[in-house]
Amino acid sequence: MPNIKFSYFYRDAGNYKQFGYIIFSDPDDVDIVQLEILIRNKLIDETWFYADQWHLPDLHFDGWNNQLDNTFHEFDCINYTDEATNT
Fold first, then answer.
1. Which of 5, 42, 49, 51 is the most exposed place for a label (fewest CB within 10 A)?
2. Quick count: other Cβ atoms within 10 Å of Cβ 85?
3. Domain that holds residue 59
4. DSSP 67-81
5. Is 8 part of any domain?
6. How many domains does the chain have?
């Protein structure tokens, strides 16, 4: 049974990006299309979220500019994977 890979990234004011992902087990064989709909409904404008509120690793760069850089992360995609869980 495949696991589920949740991919996301952080984009700073200069459009530099850092990518990350979390791999969850899927013992209930969740429908990936329905899961993406559920996730997008929980996001800000179906795209953004605060990593700490979702209990995901923060991907902000070390050089933070409070006046330019935003605080949220962006959802990229989810898919099935044979990779091992990392949560």
1. 42
2. 13
3. 3-81
4. TT--S-EEEEEEEEE
5. yes
6. 1
